[in-house]
Specification:
The protein is 46% helix and 15% strand. With 727 residues, the chain is an alpha+beta fold. Bound molecules: manganese (II) ion.
Length: 727
């Protein structure tokens, strides 16, 4: 175990400004808190945080990171609290320790590797300060170094799997190649000991054989460069069992093919010398095509810079060469952490998806105080996503703003379709609740449930929206067909016919529909009038007059019969044959009912005289009357006579707002029919996700009849609002 003064000295060796007092206090505090706790190895528990602090010191990190390393397990494993740490070490340290604690709690089992990428994103999203991630990586590295002390094989495997899938790639992503390699090798040893030992045995054999070759090639390369006037450090590159294993998996090449390729690294003083060395080597040896890569002008996304090339070496074998400066080497090993000391000439990553790293590096380069910068920087990557868990720990990635509906559909469309509620972290919460990172969601389902149109308002994923729309379209069509059938039956029956499948089938093409169901649905949705269909089936009916309660398409028939009506915008002219009992009219005068307000017997009415058209009747409260306020001479007082037994029916127009949900349209038609009203026309004027606004013409006896129907409709749950249509 590193002793207190040793740790302080190590930190001071690269950071003379280090806060010695804070380091000492953290060391003592951690030692006291962990007390007599022991590790699986039998060592005092505190040896672990101290080693983690030591790893962070190797990375040459700032005082806050080292202190966080010393304290990183205190909240989770001792009676220490965030508040206590904040009181003793300041809010920043408390925030960092808390961040590491939260990350540690996230260690869920990722059974499937395809979830690993999501987990990596989650960890990054939760590492609001990059030092949280660095401490977590150091923690994991030490745990992997001591993994063999854990007795349960299953637990060792799980930790190794997680390291391989989650932490090694994360280390790579922030450019820490050395940490990544060590994590991979340690995990590989646990996950595939047989694979590893066979690779090692093979490597050992080749190494024996190649022992003389490597120094010879090194010497030859050094000489070539020196002859060109370049001082360089040339070394044969170490190959690790896992890197060979993975290449064999990925590239389908034999062990010999891989291991025979020798790799060398050349370190020179500056960037210009990198290209100079490249030129010298390409001049002296035959270049292998496709091997040259310039990661100096175009660095890798994680900031890695180097020149790579391949040549036929001095002894006739293929060799790989990496050329770079010492800074680049340090950057390759330590990644983001390298910037604490190497502020100048950092990598300039150009890939847009790594803007976060670019800005990080930029600010590190420009900030007078890198430490201060890091305290205030948040990793912004993946901020557009949230990551949630199923009760079984499966990770689901969703766009920010997603709700349990999105989650349910992401799990399975069946789960979405039958979703009735959601437990978020064990609490029942509304389906419109916005999900947060790390939430555990349990979707409550019921076979009786079907998607509600209102869900679409708070679903954000395309999958959920599409599924809801698909369901509603199907359900809506069913309703339209139902309504269309009843409209057709009624219309046909009135003329003594049957709306047969055969009859409809014969005319479906007239209406440009492929199936009779499509035709019926169009009638139900108000696109095609039921009477239009009937006259198509029975063309002879066209010239006939509908019965008094004939409903249907009044307008075309009126047009055919009455010239005055045709000229008028006011359709109905039943008054001419004396059917309308109205007082106060000059005999013989043409009478129309205004289509803006559809007056009914019982309504208080006013007549407006229009030259050449006769009298138009409006309800007393009709807004259209305002436009006649300047010409009082055109107004005539009218009223209804007593309504007799054989009174004709009148068209009342209603504006109805119906919830866009299963069954609402059929309950609408049922209610109207039960109150002996006939729907003569139905038109959907506005269709939103949640509601339909419809204009319905209902044949009624008088205003009271319409008022009864209105009241009945208002009492129907699926019907949101009912009004007499005014304009
Ligand atoms: Mn730990």
């Amino acid at each position: 175990m590193i002793r207190q003064f040793e740790l302080v000295e190590r930190v001071q060796s690269y950071d003379p400004e280090a806060d010695e007092d804070a380091l000492n206090r953290a060391y003592v505090y951690g030692l006291k808190k962990h007390g007599s706790q022991l590790r699986a190895s039998g060592d005092p528990y505190f040896s672990h945080p101290v080693e983690v602090a030591g790893i962070l010191a190797e990375m040459k990190l700032d005082t806050s990171s080292i202190v966080t390393g010393l304290l990183h397990d205190t909240i989770e494993d001792t009676d220490a609290t965030r508040d206590e740490i904040a009181g003793m070490f300041g809010e920043d340290i408390a925030r960092l320790v808390d961040g590491v604690t939260k990350l540690s709690r996230l260690e869920v089992q990722s059974e499937s590797t395809k979830e690993a990428e999501n987990l990596r994103k989650l960890v990054l999203a939760m590492s609001s300060d990059i030092r949280v991630l660095l401490v977590k990586l150091a923690d994991r590295l030490h745990n992997m170094r001591t993994l063999h002390h854990i007795k349960e094989p299953a637990r060792r495997k799980r930790i190794a799997r997680e390291t391989m899938d989650l932490y090694a790639p994360l280390a790579s992503r922030i450019g820490m190649e050395r940490v990544k390699r060590e994590l991979e090798e340690l995990a590989f040893a646990e996950l595939n000991p047989d694979g590893r030992s066979s690779v090692q045995a093979r490597l050992g054999y080749l190494k024996e054989k190649g022992d003389e070759i490597v120094p010879q090639v090194e010497a030859q390369l050094t000489k070539t460069l020196k002859d060109g006037g370049l001082e360089a450090q040339v070394s044969g590159r170490e190959k690790t069992p896992y890197s060979i294993w993975r290449k064999m998996q990925q590239k389908n090449v034999s062990f010999e093919q891989l291991a025979d390729i020798m790799a060398f690294r050349i370190i020179v003083a500056d960037v210009a010398q990198c290209y100079q060395a490249l030129g010298l080597l390409h001049g002296a040896f035959q270049v292998l095509p496709q091997r040259f890569k310039d990661y100096i002008s175009v660095p890798k996304p994680n900031g890695y810079r180097s020149l790579h090339t391949g040549v036929i070496g001095p002894l006739g074998q293929r060799i790989e060469i990496q050329i770079r400066t010492a800074d680049m080497q340090d950057q390759a090993d330590r990644g983001v952490a390298a910037h604490w000391v190497y502020k100048e000439g950092g990598p300039s990553t150009d890939a847009p998806q790594y803007a976060w790293l670019r800005s990080l590096v930029d600010i590190l380069d420009k900030a007078p105080n890198a430490e201060e910068f890091l305290e205030h920087t948040k990793l912004e990557m993946f901020q557009d996503q949230v990551f949630c868990f199923t009760p079984k720990g499966k990770l689901i990635a969703l766009p920010r703003g997603a709700t349990p509906i999105d989650f349910a559909y992401a799990v399975h469309s069946q789960v979405g379709d039958t979703c009735v509620g959601a437990k978020i972290n064990g609490r029942m919460l509304p389906l419109r609740t916005t999900l947060s990172n790390g939430d555990q969601i349990e979707i409550v389902t019921s076979k009786a449930q079907t998607p509600s149109p209102t869900w679409e308002r708070f679903a954000v994923t395309g999958k959920a929206k599409a599924a809801i729309r698909r369901f509603i379209r199907t359900r809506q069509r069913e309703q339209y067909i139902q309504l269309g059938k009843s409209l057709l039956d009624k219309t046909f029956h009135e003329e003594g016919y049957e709306a047969t499948e055969k009859g409809l089938d014969g005319v479906k093409a007239n209406f440009k529909h492929a199936t009779t169901d499509d035709l019926i649905a169009s009638v139900g949705s108000g696109i095609i009038g039921a009477r239009e269909v009937m006259t198509a089936v029975y063309p002879g009916l066209k010239q006939q007059r509908p019965s008094a309660r004939g409903g249907a398409d009044v307008v075309p028939i009126t047009r055919a019969r009455n010239k005055a009506a045709k000229a008028s915008e006011n359709g109905r002219t039943a008054a001419e044959n004396g059917q309308i009992p109205i007082k106060g009219l000059i005999p013989g005068m043409a009478v129309h009912f205004a289509r803006c307000c559809h007056p009914l017997p019982g309504d208080r009415i006013v007549g407006i005289i229009t030259t050449g058209k006769g009298v138009t009747l409006h309800t007393i409260d009709c807004a259209t009357l305002e436009s006649f306020s300047d010409s009082p001479e055109r107004w005539i007082d009218v009223g209804w006579d007593a309504v007799g037994e054989d009174a004709p029916s009148y068209t009342g127009r209603l504006k109805v707002t119906v919830a866009n949900q299963p069954g609402s349209l059929s309950s609408l038609s049922t209610v109207i029919a039960r109150h002996e009203g006939n729907i003569s026309n139905l038109r959907i004027v506005n269709r939103s996700m949640d509601f339909f606004d419809m204009v319905i013409d209902v044949e009624v006896a008088d205003v009271k009849h319409l008022a009864d129907i209105t009241a009945a409709l208002r009492a129907t749950p699926a019907i949101n609002a009912v009004e007499r249509a005014r304009n």
